[in-house]
Structures are given as C-alpha cells and as structure tokens.
Amino acid sequence: MPDRIEQAKRALRADLRERRQTISAHAREVAEAGVAEQLDALVARLGARSISCFLSTPTEPGTHAFVRAALDRGIRVLLPITREDGLLDWSVATADTEITEGLFGLPEPVGDVLGPIAVNDVDLLIIPAAAVDRQGMRLGWGRGYFDKTLGSMEKCPPVYAVIFDTELIDDVPRDVHDQPVTGVVTPTRTLPLAAHTS
C-alpha cells in the first residue's frame, strides 16, 4: 500500500515540477509580487511579530520580496537550514543576510545557527509545497523536513503553504506521517482550508 502512495506522489511531483519549469520570467515576477501582497496581509491579519519563511528557488512562487518587506517592518523572520539528519536548523534573517546553496541546492542563509526548537516561538509558519488539496493535506517534495518539523511542534501556530493557483487540487496522495496545513497562499489569494480554522 505505501508503495502505491509513494508512486502516486512521485508521479504528481514530476508533473508539477514540469509545469513549474514552463512558467515565464514575467509570470514569475508577477507571482512574487502577488505572493508578497498576500503574505503581508496574512501577517497583518494574524498580528504575527515572529515568523518562519522559506527562501524560494527560481521555480517556486517567490518569497524573497516578502522577506525583505517583513524585515523592513520589524518582523522577526526565521529562515530554514537543512541538516543531514532530516531536521531543520534556523537562522534569523537580516537585511544583509548572505544566501548560499544548502543541501539539495536550496537557497539558505549564512549566519548564526539556531537549533530545531527555535521555530517553536513563531506566530506563523510559511512553508513550501508542490501542491495542497482542499482538505489541507500538503504534498511536499519528498524529503520530509517540514512534515518532521510540524509533527514535532508542541503547539503549532498557523501554517500556510505557498503555491501557484493551479496547485490547489482536489486530492493529494497521503501517508501517515504527512502533516496538514492551515491554508494556502497563492499569487492571487489566501485561503484557509478545512483541516484547520485558523
């Protein structure tokens, strides 16, 4: 049974990855501006003063403009750093944070490293996803970092996944360790989902 779920996930990820490759540079710029606007409004609505946010890769909906704007407004932003053991360390973003290539070629901050539990203090988690379904189940990229993080948090704040509009789908293949999200942020809207009401 798990094999069938894993195969379905792999096939869906491959399709989504391919679709992301075809998005034009102009469409990406428009998407990054839209995501920044949606996330700004979400942070304001939740009154979040401390958040975590991933640094987007070139094919993901952009988060860099949002992170810069959040720092300008005095919001504390934790950026994830992947570890060999499958956990995430965190670093506090600054206006001049240097970005390097981490494990798996992902953009990650260079700076003082805080351990995995640092994220327990945030008011909002903003995480990547390949797709999310209407029940709030998230399909990640298969490495399990954010599922482990969410599953280990004692008191999890709202969790929003950033995706393109077409990546909110009816159903994602689901395994026992997969963690739901509170909602999604796309370039055009912010949508709380059924799994949570935050």
UniProtKB/TrEMBL annotation:
Q: Which reaction does it catalyse?
A: (6S)-5-formyl-5,6,7,8-tetrahydrofolate + ATP = (6R)-5,10-methenyltetrahydrofolate + ADP + phosphate
Q: Which residues, if any, are the signal sequence?
A: none
Q: Which GO terms describe its molecular function?
A: 5-formyltetrahydrofolate cyclo-ligase activity; ATP binding; metal ion binding
**Enzyme class at the top of the EC tree:** ligase
Q: Its Gene Ontology biological processes? A: folic acid-containing compound biosynthetic process; tetrahydrofolate interconversion
Q: Which residues form a coiled coil?
A: none
Would I find Translocase among this entry's keywords?
no
Q: Which InterPro entries match?
A: FTHF_cligase, FTHF_cligase-like_sf, NagB/RpiA_transferase-like
* EC numbers: 6.3.3.2
Sorted alphabetically, the keyword list is: ATP-binding, Ligase, Magnesium, Metal-binding, Nucleotide-binding
For the keyword Ligase, the answer is yes
Where substrate binds, per the record, is at L55, E60
Q: Where, by residue number, does ATP bind?
A: K9, R10, A11, L12, R13
Kindly name one Pfam family recorded for this protein: 5-FTHF_cyc-lig
Cofactor requirement? Mg(2+)
* Domain of life assignment: Bacteria
Against PANTHER family, the record matches this protein to: 5-FORMYLTETRAHYDROFOLATE CYCLO-LIGASE, ATPASE INHIBITOR/5-FORMYLTETRAHYDROFOLATE CYCLO-LIGASE
Q: Which family does it belong to?
A: Belongs to the 5-formyltetrahydrofolate cyclo-ligase family.
What is the protein name for this chain? 5-formyltetrahydrofolate cyclo-ligase
- Taxonomic source organism: Microbacterium testaceum (Aureobacterium testaceum)
The lineage, from the top, is: Bacteria, Bacillati, Actinomycetota, Actinomycetes, Micrococcales
